């Protein structure tokens, strides 16, 4: 008690001995990060908003800007690609992240049951997280190939007719979602495993003494304790899922038709294939707005769920 | 969990489920790497047994028409430079924000902004970056990509380093200052040794994310500065897809990740879990 008091006294007396008093270094250490975010994130965003009210045409490598008012924003709702992209991205994000959360949690629970080989399983399960998205696309372009892909071959072995997974508009989006689940379930698994390993053990012992079976233990003990980790992980994954680009670029290129058109891909086409800078900027601003809105909604829904579980 | 009596039969069942999952994870990767050792005909014919050939790797690495070695060098260069830059800036910034008595609104609005920035699709920013780099004559240069990757990874690095920096005991920093250390000495001899494992974890992840990044590399790079993912995407877009060469280059591109998984798994796990769990 006395020692604690002494330390508090020493701390108040020696305000000068805290790192915060060195004003020069206070600024020197923070300014690079600040400058970077200002120059390369805030400035481009301002640039983007400004461009969204303009028509940009290129004449001989020189950009001509003219005022466009709100016309780009007003054209958005009628844009078939934009609507398809938005709908597909939302379906993609929620189905894929939902699947990853369920599978990842199951996998993490199974892993906690075994004591031997846990590190080996974990090392294997982490692998997909580290592979470039474009390579994930390449891997599954080969795996899902109609003629020689392993998936159709394995299905053929159990007498199921081959299917053009990526070429058929009925299965293309589903295939992309399945690939994303393969890619990112390991991430959910890893975070859930870390969460499970850090749970207090005495609650489980109490549950066991009260005679809870495995299912009851999961529903009434594990799940409520894991909700915070699950919410954070899903929010993190949703942010990434809304930005999906690499896999789609390689697997389907948005096709067939608009069945796998995702919003990042629409943006890419408007900006870089069609050179519609003004319109593309307006679309970007709209997307950023919609994504933030959806996330606020998803996180507050998660919080409410968390509150209800407690 | 530990209190439960688990029968051997149950134990075998758990291992069986986990082994099946491990197979589901490994088979696509192994099958693709194997495809890199096949001839195009063998792959298209769908033979299960094949005689491994090295022609795809030779073609990808050493043929005159292939830039893959240059792409590899570019990815290493951009990954290394942006990682050093990003992690240095993030560490100093995180330490400053948490230990230099900034006003709460400064800390919150800066960290809040990094979160919002992280939500934006990189493609949306890429166009703005493209026009910006072009207007200052930085287009087609490595510097543009290095700066872009640094910026993309900065939010994650700052959040991660914040976790590690907060673990440094305040008493230790104060004691060092009372002993007459100035801020650079404090950072170098007190803070740095403590956060070193965190620094390693953040660096490994930042490098991997830069190595894997595609959308911005696609839009900001040219033939000379193209990275590995951009090169692999090219294989898939050719009129006649060179499947086996695509597989060979895919196999080569996951080598750094495999090496890091073997030598730095601890740091990868720490980096991926710290940010979210704490």
Keywords:
heterodimer, A: 310 residues, mainly alpha, MetI-like fold, 2 domains, two-stranded antiparallel ribbon, 13 helices, 2 strands, B: 278 residues, 14 helices
- Helix tally of chain B? 14
The amount of helix of chain A comes to: over 70%
| Shape, principal axes of CA atoms of chain A | globular
Q: N-to-C terminal Cα separation of chain B, in Å? A: 22 Å
Oligomeric grouping of the chains: heterodimer
| Strand order in the sheet with the most strands of chain A | 1-2
**Text of the CATH class of the largest domain in chain A:** Mainly Alpha
Percent range of helical residues of chain B: over 70%
- Indicate the proportion of strand residues of chain A: under 5%
Query: What's the mean pLDDT score of chain A?
Result: 84
Instruction: Tell me the radius of gyration of chain B.
Output: 23 Å
User: What are the segments of chain B in which pLDDT stays under 50 over at least 5 consecutive residues?
Assistant: none
CATH topology of the largest domain in chain A: MetI-like fold
Judged by helices, strands and strand pairing, the structural class of chain A is mainly alpha
